[in-house]
Specification:
- With 332 residues, the protein is of the alpha+beta class.
- The chain folds into two domains: 128 residues, Serine Threonine Protein Phosphatase 5, Tetratricopeptide repeat; 153 residues, Protein Transport Mog1p, Chain A (3-Layer(aba) Sandwich).
- Helix content is 52%, strand content 20%.
- It contains eleven helices and nine strands.
- The chain has a seven-stranded antiparallel beta sheet with strand order 2-3-4-8-7-6-5, sandwiched between helices. A two-stranded antiparallel sheet has the order 1-9.
- It is elongated and about 70 Å long.
C-alpha cells in the first residue's frame, strides 16, 4: 500500500511541476510573441500586429499590454468597437494603466458614447487626480454635453496647475461673458517638485492638496493646499481666520495666530496670516502654517503651506508670501 501511495504522490508532484513549467513557457512565449507584435506595430503593419497580439493573448489571457496595443491598432484601422473591448480588458487586468482609460474614452467617443465615457474618466481620476490629460478630456466631454460649469471646474484646475493644454481649453471653452464664475490660478514651483496628491470637489467646494514627489501623506515634511468656497462674497476675513485658527487648535491646543499683512482696498481683498504650534496631537511634532486668503467676485479662496517646524523664519514667510501673491483670479 505504501509504495502505491508514494507512486500517486510522485505522479501528483510531477503533474504540478510540468503544469507550472508549461504555464511558464506559455508566459515566456506570450511575451516573445508580444514583442514581435510591437515590431510590426512600430512598422505600421497593424493587421499583422493584431494577429501577433492575439496569439500572445491566447497564450496569456492576462497580458494587459497586449490588449492595449491591439486596441490601439484596432482604433488606427477604424474599428473602434473592437478597440473599446480591448481597452476594457486592459483596465480589467491593469487598473493603473492610465493611458488605457484615455484610449478607452476615445474609442467610446467614436461611437458618440459621451455619457458612457464619464464614469470611465471618473474612475481614472479617483486613482490619479492630478492627471491633466484625463481631466482635460473630461472637461471637453462636459462641455460637449452642455455642462459648462463642470467643464470649467475641470479646466480651471488644470490651468491653475500650469498645464498648457488646460490653459488653452479653458480660454476656448470658458472665456467670454457667457459663463459666470471664476477661479484662482496658482502654479506651484516646478523646481520644488510638488505634485497634486488629491482633489476633492462638489458644486460649492473644492480642495487640491500638494505634497513633494518623494513624500507620502502620512510622512510629509511640507504640505500645501488650495481651497475654493464657491458663492461666498464679501467674506469677513477676521471671522474666517478665527474659524481656521479654532480648527487648528483642535489639533494643536497651544497654537498661536498672527495677522501678517492685509489689503482691504484691492479689487480682490486679501489677507496673509500665520499659525504656529510647538506640537500637534496627530503627528506629535511642531507645525507652522502660512495662509493666503483672497476674496473673488463669486468665491472665497484660501491657500496655505505648512511645515513641521515650531516657527517660520522671516525669509520663509517672505518667500511664501511672494509665492501666494503671484496667484491670479481668472474671470470666466
Amino acid at each position: 500500500m505504501y509504495p502505491y501511495r508514494l507512486y500517486i504522490i510522485t505522479r501528483f508532484i510531477l503533474l504540478l511541476f510540468f503544469s507550472s513549467t508549461i504555464d511558464l513557457f506559455c508566459a515566456q512565449d506570450a511575451v516573445e510573441i508580444f514583442k514581435l507584435g510591437m515590431k510590426r506595430h512600430d512598422a505600421n503593419d497593424c493587421p499583422k500586429a493584431i494577429e501577433l497580439y492575439t496569439k500572445a493573448i491566447n497564450l496569456d489571457s492576462t497580458l494587459a499590454r497586449a490588449y492595449f496595443n491591439r486596441g490601439t491598432c484596432h482604433l488606427k484601422i477604424g474599428k473602434p468597437d473592437l478597440a473599446e473591448q480591448d481597452f476594457l480588458l486592459t483596465i480589467t487586468y491593469d487598473s493603473l494603466l492610465m493611458d488605457a482609460y484615455y484610449s478607452y474614452t476615445v474609442s467610446l467617443l467614436y461611437g458618440n458614447k459621451h455619457k458612457q465615457a464619464l464614469p470611465i474618466l471618473n474612475k481614472a481620476l479617483m486613482i490619479e487626480p492630478n492627471n491633466a490629460s484625463l481631466r482635460n478630456l473630461r472637461g471637453q466631454i462636459y462641455a460637449y454635453l452642455g455642462d459648462k460649469q463642470s467643464a470649467c471646474n475641470d479646466l480651471s484646475i488644470t490651468k491653475g496647475a500650469g498645464d498648457k493644454e488646460g490653459n488653452g481649453l479653458f480660454d476656448k471653452i470658458c472665456g467670454g461673458d457667457t459663463l459666470k464664475g471664476e477661479a484662482f490660478s496658482l502654479p506651484w514651483p516646478v523646481d520644488e517638485h510638488w505634485r497634486v496628491q488629491n482633489i476633492s470637489e462638489d458644486s460649492t467646494f473644492s480642495l487640491m492638496e500638494f505634497f513633494h514627489d518623494n513624500e507620502q501623506p502620512e510622512l510629509w515634511t511640507e504640505y500645501g493646499a488650495m481651497m475654493t468656497l464657491r458663492d461666498i462674497r464679501n467674506a469677513n476675513f477676521k471671522e474666517f481666520s478665527q474659524m481656521i485658527y479654532q480648527d487648528f487648535k483642535q489639533r494643536a491646543p497651544k497654537a498661536t495666530l498672527k495677522y501678517m499683512k492685509e489689503d482691504k482696498k484691492s479689487e480682490f481683498p486679501w489677507l496673509i496670516l500665520l499659525l504656529q504650534a510647538p506640537s500637534t496631537v496627530d503627528h506629535q511634532q511642531p507645525e507652522s502654517q502660512l495662509w493666503y486668503i483672497i476674496q473673488g467676485k463669486t468665491a472665497l479662496y484660501s491657500n496655505f503651506r505648512a511645515v513641521k517646524k515650531a516657527t517660520l523664519s522671516k525669509d520663509l514667510i517672505k518667500k511664501w508670501s511672494a509665492f501666494f501673491r503671484s496667484g491670479t483670479i481668472i474671470e470666466k
